[in-house]
UniProtKB/TrEMBL annotation:
Cross-referenced InterPro entries: AKR, Aldo-Keto_reductase, NAD(P)_OxRdtase_dom_sf, NADP_OxRdtase_dom
Record domain NADP-dependent oxidoreductase: where: 26-221, 229-290
SUPFAM superfamilies in the cross-refs: NAD(P)-linked oxidoreductase
Pfam families xref list: Aldo_ket_red
This protein's UniProt keywords: Oxidoreductase
Protein name: Oxidoreductase
Keyword Oxidoreductase annotated: yes
Domain of life, source organism: Bacteria
Gene3D superfamilies (UniProt xref): NADP-dependent oxidoreductase domain
Protein backbone atom coordinates (compact mmCIF):
# COMPACT_ATOMS: atom_id res chain seq x y z
CA UNK A 1 0.00 0.00 0.00
CA UNK A 2 1.39 3.40 -0.91
CA UNK A 3 2.32 5.80 1.87
CA UNK A 4 -0.21 8.22 0.44
CA UNK A 5 -3.07 5.75 0.67
CA UNK A 6 -6.06 7.56 2.10
CA UNK A 7 -9.05 9.38 0.77
CA UNK A 8 -8.26 12.03 -1.80
CA UNK A 9 -11.58 13.60 -0.78
CA UNK A 10 -10.53 14.48 2.77
CA UNK A 11 -10.35 18.25 3.15
CA UNK A 12 -6.82 19.62 3.15
CA UNK A 13 -5.26 16.72 1.24
CA UNK A 14 -1.88 15.45 2.42
CA UNK A 15 1.10 16.97 4.21
CA UNK A 16 4.61 15.84 5.15
CA UNK A 17 5.33 14.94 8.75
CA UNK A 18 9.09 14.47 8.72
CA UNK A 19 9.63 11.90 5.96
CA UNK A 20 6.10 10.53 6.44
CA UNK A 21 2.98 11.66 4.62
CA UNK A 22 -0.32 12.11 6.45
CA UNK A 23 -3.77 13.44 5.69
CA UNK A 24 -4.10 16.99 7.02
CA UNK A 25 -7.41 15.88 8.48
CA UNK A 26 -6.34 13.61 11.34
CA UNK A 27 -8.03 12.25 14.44
CA UNK A 28 -7.41 12.93 18.14
CA UNK A 29 -8.07 9.80 20.18
CA UNK A 30 -8.15 11.32 23.68
CA UNK A 31 -11.95 11.36 23.87
CA UNK A 32 -12.10 7.57 23.55
CA UNK A 33 -11.09 6.87 27.17
CA UNK A 34 -13.56 7.12 30.07
CA UNK A 35 -14.79 10.36 31.72
CA UNK A 36 -11.93 12.74 32.54
CA UNK A 37 -9.72 10.67 30.20
CA UNK A 38 -9.53 8.03 32.95
CA UNK A 39 -10.39 4.36 32.67
CA UNK A 40 -12.22 2.55 29.90
CA UNK A 41 -15.06 4.09 27.90
CA UNK A 42 -18.64 3.29 28.84
CA UNK A 43 -19.09 1.63 25.44
CA UNK A 44 -15.80 0.08 24.25
CA UNK A 45 -17.53 -1.33 21.16
CA UNK A 46 -18.39 2.21 20.05
CA UNK A 47 -14.77 3.31 20.56
CA UNK A 48 -13.52 0.46 18.37
CA UNK A 49 -16.07 1.33 15.68
CA UNK A 50 -15.08 5.01 15.68
CA UNK A 51 -11.43 4.01 15.21
CA UNK A 52 -12.27 1.68 12.32
CA UNK A 53 -14.35 4.48 10.76
CA UNK A 54 -11.35 6.82 11.05
CA UNK A 55 -9.28 4.50 8.86
CA UNK A 56 -12.15 3.59 6.54
CA UNK A 57 -12.76 7.29 5.89
CA UNK A 58 -9.14 7.60 4.71
CA UNK A 59 -7.58 9.37 7.72
CA UNK A 60 -3.90 8.41 8.10
CA UNK A 61 -2.91 10.38 11.24
CA UNK A 62 -4.09 9.38 14.74
CA UNK A 63 -2.94 11.33 17.79
CA UNK A 64 -2.78 9.49 21.12
CA UNK A 65 -0.82 9.22 24.40
CA UNK A 66 -0.05 6.53 26.93
CA UNK A 67 -1.53 8.87 29.55
CA UNK A 68 -5.02 8.59 28.01
CA UNK A 69 -6.77 6.19 30.31
CA UNK A 70 -3.83 5.68 31.19
CA UNK A 71 -2.90 2.98 28.66
CA UNK A 72 -6.57 2.62 27.66
CA UNK A 73 -6.67 4.57 24.37
CA UNK A 74 -3.52 2.95 22.97
CA UNK A 75 -4.89 -0.51 23.69
CA UNK A 76 -8.18 0.40 22.00
CA UNK A 77 -6.26 1.57 18.93
CA UNK A 78 -4.41 -1.73 18.78
CA UNK A 79 -7.59 -3.77 19.33
CA UNK A 80 -9.41 -1.88 16.57
CA UNK A 81 -6.73 -1.49 13.95
CA UNK A 82 -3.83 -3.96 14.36
CA UNK A 83 -2.27 -4.99 12.00
CA UNK A 84 -2.15 -1.37 10.92
CA UNK A 85 -2.43 -0.23 7.31
CA UNK A 86 0.99 0.86 6.07
CA UNK A 87 -0.39 4.34 5.41
CA UNK A 88 -1.48 4.91 9.03
CA UNK A 89 0.77 6.98 11.30
CA UNK A 90 0.14 6.98 15.04
CA UNK A 91 1.61 9.92 16.94
CA UNK A 92 2.03 9.64 20.69
CA UNK A 93 3.17 11.79 23.61
CA UNK A 94 5.32 11.20 26.65
CA UNK A 95 6.21 13.48 29.56
CA UNK A 96 3.09 13.38 31.74
CA UNK A 97 1.57 10.66 33.89
CA UNK A 98 -1.78 10.38 35.62
CA UNK A 99 -2.40 10.56 39.35
CA UNK A 100 -5.32 9.09 41.32
CA UNK A 101 -7.24 12.35 41.06
CA UNK A 102 -7.01 12.32 37.26
CA UNK A 103 -4.30 15.01 37.24
CA UNK A 104 -1.44 15.05 34.71
CA UNK A 105 1.79 15.40 36.77
CA UNK A 106 5.00 15.80 34.75
CA UNK A 107 7.14 12.67 34.28
CA UNK A 108 10.12 13.91 32.32
CA UNK A 109 13.05 12.31 34.14
CA UNK A 110 14.99 9.90 31.89
CA UNK A 111 13.65 6.76 33.59
CA UNK A 112 10.00 7.83 33.23
CA UNK A 113 10.50 8.79 29.58
CA UNK A 114 12.17 5.47 28.71
CA UNK A 115 9.40 3.57 30.49
CA UNK A 116 6.71 5.60 28.68
CA UNK A 117 8.23 4.93 25.25
CA UNK A 118 8.41 1.19 25.95
CA UNK A 119 4.82 1.15 27.23
CA UNK A 120 3.63 2.94 24.07
CA UNK A 121 5.46 0.39 21.91
CA UNK A 122 3.95 -2.49 23.87
CA UNK A 123 0.38 -1.16 24.02
CA UNK A 124 0.30 -0.15 20.35
CA UNK A 125 2.05 -3.37 19.26
CA UNK A 126 4.77 -1.49 17.38
CA UNK A 127 8.56 -1.93 17.03
CA UNK A 128 9.05 1.75 16.17
CA UNK A 129 6.95 4.79 17.09
CA UNK A 130 6.46 7.10 14.07
CA UNK A 131 6.47 10.34 16.08
CA UNK A 132 6.83 10.97 19.81
CA UNK A 133 6.03 14.40 21.20
CA UNK A 134 7.69 15.45 24.44
CA UNK A 135 4.83 17.00 26.37
CA UNK A 136 6.04 19.98 28.41
CA UNK A 137 4.48 22.43 30.86
CA UNK A 138 1.32 21.50 32.69
CA UNK A 139 -2.46 21.78 32.39
CA UNK A 140 -2.14 25.57 32.72
CA UNK A 141 0.02 25.73 29.58
CA UNK A 142 3.69 25.95 28.62
CA UNK A 143 6.29 26.84 31.28
CA UNK A 144 9.77 28.25 30.68
CA UNK A 145 11.70 25.21 31.91
CA UNK A 146 14.80 23.59 30.35
CA UNK A 147 14.13 20.69 28.00
CA UNK A 148 17.65 19.45 27.22
CA UNK A 149 17.84 16.43 29.52
CA UNK A 150 14.40 15.13 28.53
CA UNK A 151 14.86 15.73 24.81
CA UNK A 152 18.32 14.12 24.87
CA UNK A 153 16.74 11.04 26.45
CA UNK A 154 14.26 10.81 23.56
CA UNK A 155 16.99 11.50 21.00
CA UNK A 156 18.93 8.55 22.43
CA UNK A 157 15.85 6.30 22.03
CA UNK A 158 15.57 7.64 18.47
CA UNK A 159 19.21 6.67 17.80
CA UNK A 160 18.39 3.21 19.16
CA UNK A 161 15.71 2.91 16.45
CA UNK A 162 12.67 2.97 18.75
CA UNK A 163 11.39 6.36 17.53
CA UNK A 164 11.33 7.66 13.97
CA UNK A 165 10.62 11.36 14.57
CA UNK A 166 10.49 13.74 17.54
CA UNK A 167 8.19 16.63 18.32
CA UNK A 168 7.23 18.90 21.20
CA UNK A 169 3.92 19.67 22.84
CA UNK A 170 2.83 22.54 25.08
CA UNK A 171 6.14 24.19 24.20
CA UNK A 172 7.43 27.78 24.09
CA UNK A 173 9.38 29.11 21.08
CA UNK A 174 12.55 29.09 23.22
CA UNK A 175 12.10 25.42 24.13
CA UNK A 176 11.69 24.54 20.45
CA UNK A 177 15.01 26.22 19.64
CA UNK A 178 16.67 24.47 22.59
CA UNK A 179 15.38 21.06 21.42
CA UNK A 180 16.39 21.70 17.80
CA UNK A 181 20.02 21.97 18.92
CA UNK A 182 19.73 18.33 20.09
CA UNK A 183 17.68 16.66 17.33
CA UNK A 184 15.30 17.69 14.53
CA UNK A 185 11.77 18.67 15.61
CA UNK A 186 9.21 17.71 12.93
CA UNK A 187 6.03 18.81 14.72
CA UNK A 188 4.78 21.08 17.49
CA UNK A 189 1.46 20.35 19.19
CA UNK A 190 0.15 23.30 21.20
CA UNK A 191 -3.20 24.76 22.26
CA UNK A 192 -4.57 26.83 19.40
CA UNK A 193 -7.98 27.53 17.90
CA UNK A 194 -10.06 30.45 16.62
CA UNK A 195 -10.38 31.84 20.12
CA UNK A 196 -6.83 31.09 21.43
CA UNK A 197 -4.27 32.54 19.10
CA UNK A 198 -1.17 32.96 21.27
CA UNK A 199 0.85 30.91 18.76
CA UNK A 200 0.12 32.98 15.65
CA UNK A 201 3.73 34.07 15.19
CA UNK A 202 5.07 30.64 16.09
CA UNK A 203 2.87 28.96 13.45
CA UNK A 204 4.25 31.23 10.75
CA UNK A 205 7.83 30.62 11.88
CA UNK A 206 7.31 26.84 11.91
CA UNK A 207 5.72 27.02 8.44
CA UNK A 208 8.85 28.83 7.24
CA UNK A 209 10.95 25.95 8.61
CA UNK A 210 8.67 23.25 7.13
CA UNK A 211 7.61 22.03 10.59
CA UNK A 212 4.05 20.80 11.15
CA UNK A 213 1.88 22.63 13.68
CA UNK A 214 -0.82 20.46 15.26
CA UNK A 215 -3.33 22.47 17.32
CA UNK A 216 -4.81 20.62 20.27
CA UNK A 217 -8.31 21.63 21.41
CA UNK A 218 -9.12 22.69 17.80
CA UNK A 219 -12.81 22.76 18.76
CA UNK A 220 -12.18 24.27 22.21
CA UNK A 221 -11.54 20.97 24.02
CA UNK A 222 -13.76 20.29 27.03
CA UNK A 223 -15.75 23.51 26.43
CA UNK A 224 -16.55 24.06 22.74
CA UNK A 225 -15.56 27.43 21.24
CA UNK A 226 -18.32 30.00 21.57
CA UNK A 227 -18.29 33.39 19.93
CA UNK A 228 -21.01 35.58 18.51
CA UNK A 229 -18.84 36.40 15.47
CA UNK A 230 -18.30 32.67 14.85
CA UNK A 231 -22.03 32.00 15.21
CA UNK A 232 -22.81 34.79 12.74
CA UNK A 233 -20.46 33.38 10.10
CA UNK A 234 -21.81 29.87 10.73
CA UNK A 235 -25.42 31.07 10.32
CA UNK A 236 -24.50 32.80 7.07
CA UNK A 237 -22.97 29.55 5.77
CA UNK A 238 -25.79 27.39 7.21
CA UNK A 239 -23.13 25.38 9.01
CA UNK A 240 -22.29 24.65 12.66
CA UNK A 241 -19.80 26.90 14.48
CA UNK A 242 -17.50 23.90 15.05
CA UNK A 243 -17.42 23.17 11.32
CA UNK A 244 -16.41 26.75 10.63
CA UNK A 245 -13.71 26.54 13.34
CA UNK A 246 -12.15 23.51 11.61
CA UNK A 247 -12.40 24.99 8.12
CA UNK A 248 -10.71 28.16 9.40
CA UNK A 249 -7.79 26.17 10.87
CA UNK A 250 -7.15 24.41 7.55
CA UNK A 251 -7.09 27.82 5.86
CA UNK A 252 -4.94 29.46 8.55
CA UNK A 253 -1.64 27.91 7.42
CA UNK A 254 -0.59 25.00 5.19
CA UNK A 255 1.54 23.47 7.98
CA UNK A 256 -1.50 22.98 10.24
CA UNK A 257 -2.66 19.39 10.74
CA UNK A 258 -6.10 18.84 12.31
CA UNK A 259 -6.68 16.31 15.12
CA UNK A 260 -10.25 17.03 16.29
CA UNK A 261 -11.36 14.59 18.96
CA UNK A 262 -14.64 12.78 19.08
CA UNK A 263 -16.16 9.62 20.48
CA UNK A 264 -19.06 9.89 18.04
CA UNK A 265 -19.30 8.36 14.57
CA UNK A 266 -21.72 11.10 13.52
CA UNK A 267 -19.45 13.90 14.79
CA UNK A 268 -16.49 12.37 12.95
CA UNK A 269 -18.36 12.64 9.66
CA UNK A 270 -19.69 16.11 10.52
CA UNK A 271 -16.16 17.30 11.24
CA UNK A 272 -14.80 16.00 7.93
CA UNK A 273 -17.60 17.73 6.04
CA UNK A 274 -17.18 20.88 8.14
CA UNK A 275 -13.43 21.16 7.58
CA UNK A 276 -14.14 21.27 3.86
CA UNK A 277 -16.46 24.29 4.05
CA UNK A 278 -15.41 26.99 1.62
CA UNK A 279 -14.76 30.31 3.42
CA UNK A 280 -14.90 33.61 1.55
CA UNK A 281 -12.56 36.54 2.13
CA UNK A 282 -15.36 38.23 4.11
CA UNK A 283 -15.83 35.13 6.27
CA UNK A 284 -12.09 34.97 6.96
CA UNK A 285 -11.94 38.68 7.83
CA UNK A 286 -14.84 38.32 10.30
CA UNK A 287 -13.31 35.19 11.86
CA UNK A 288 -9.89 36.79 12.12
CA UNK A 289 -11.26 39.36 14.60
CA UNK A 290 -12.27 36.70 17.14
CA UNK A 291 -8.94 35.84 18.71
CA UNK A 292 -7.56 39.39 18.63
N1 LIG B 1 -0.65 17.82 23.72
C1 LIG B 1 -1.54 18.01 24.66
O1 LIG B 1 -1.23 18.41 25.78
C2 LIG B 1 -2.98 17.72 24.33
C3 LIG B 1 -3.99 18.20 25.18
C4 LIG B 1 -5.30 17.94 24.83
C5 LIG B 1 -5.61 17.24 23.68
N2 LIG B 1 -4.60 16.77 22.87
C6 LIG B 1 -4.91 16.04 21.62
O2 LIG B 1 -5.70 16.87 20.81
C7 LIG B 1 -6.86 16.15 20.39
C8 LIG B 1 -8.01 17.12 20.19
O3 LIG B 1 -8.36 17.72 21.42
P1 LIG B 1 -9.68 17.36 22.22
O4 LIG B 1 -10.28 16.09 21.71
O5 LIG B 1 -9.36 17.42 23.66
O6 LIG B 1 -10.60 18.61 21.94
P2 LIG B 1 -11.37 19.13 20.64
O7 LIG B 1 -11.02 18.33 19.44
O8 LIG B 1 -11.21 20.59 20.60
O9 LIG B 1 -12.88 18.88 21.06
C9 LIG B 1 -13.36 17.61 21.37
C10 LIG B 1 -14.74 17.80 21.99
O10 LIG B 1 -15.63 18.31 21.00
C11 LIG B 1 -16.75 17.44 20.88
N3 LIG B 1 -17.07 17.37 19.45
C12 LIG B 1 -16.29 16.91 18.44
N4 LIG B 1 -16.92 17.04 17.27
C13 LIG B 1 -18.14 17.57 17.53
C14 LIG B 1 -19.24 17.93 16.73
N5 LIG B 1 -19.22 17.75 15.41
N6 LIG B 1 -20.34 18.45 17.33
C15 LIG B 1 -20.37 18.62 18.68
N7 LIG B 1 -19.35 18.30 19.50
C16 LIG B 1 -18.24 17.78 18.93
C17 LIG B 1 -16.31 16.11 21.42
O11 LIG B 1 -17.41 15.41 21.97
P3 LIG B 1 -17.97 14.05 21.30
O12 LIG B 1 -17.07 12.97 21.75
O13 LIG B 1 -19.35 13.96 21.84
O14 LIG B 1 -17.95 14.25 19.82
C18 LIG B 1 -15.33 16.52 22.50
O15 LIG B 1 -16.00 16.79 23.70
C19 LIG B 1 -7.08 15.13 21.50
O16 LIG B 1 -7.92 14.07 21.08
C20 LIG B 1 -5.68 14.74 21.81
O17 LIG B 1 -5.27 13.74 20.89
C21 LIG B 1 -3.31 17.02 23.18
Amino acid sequence: MSDQHGSASLPGGFRALGDLTVTRFGYGAMQLAGPGVMGPPADPGNALTVLRDVVDLGITHIDTAGAYGPRVTNRLIRAALYPYPESLHIVTKVGAERDRQGGWPPARDPGSLRRAVHENLEDLGLDVLDLVNLRLGDAAGPRPEPVAEAFETLAELQRQGLIRHLGLSNATPEQIVEAQAIAPVVAVQNLYNLAHRDDDRLIDELARQGIAYVPFFPLGGFSPIQSSALSAVAARLEASPLSVALAWLLRRSPNILLIPGTSSRAHLRENIAGAGLPLSADDLADLDKIGH
